[in-house]
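Figure S7 source data.
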Amino acid sequence: MSKFKVAVIMGSESDKEIMIEAINFLQELDITHEIKIMSAHRHPEEVASFAKNAEANGFRVIIAGAGKAAHLPGFIAAYTILPVIGVPIKTKDLGGLDSLLSIVQMPKGVPVATVAIDGAKNAAILAGEILALADDAVKTKLTAFKRKLATGVVK
Ligand code: RP5
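Tokens for the predicted 5-O-phosphono-beta-D-ribofuranose complex:
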């Protein structure tokens, strides 16, 4: 397992269908991770407490998925200097553009690295790339993954 942990946070049980893709890829890379369902508007104190203590609790990257007025990733980023990767979840009414803009348009000073709508797997790959800077086992697995991607394209 990896030296450091990644947190996978989602705003609702309904986000699980998409966020599972991030979880599966972290598992594929043997990256230690914890999964939490907590909402920035339904459980603000719980989320704040998680974010304030995340680094001390061994996390190095936080992946946060949310839909609609998706303030969860930005709210977390307000409380920590750990990199936060936001996953905008597709929505019924606005197709996820609401989630995307809520996450990507963070005001200057508090960035959230944002992947595509429903791009949970890319969030896990990016988290792996960050951990790989200081974890050779993750680096080796990611390098192999990228090589396989390239081979797939050639085939
Ligand atoms: C956000 O609202 C969640 O991240 C979810 O994508 C969306 C809808 O939540 P539910 O009404 O399904 O719980 O907080």
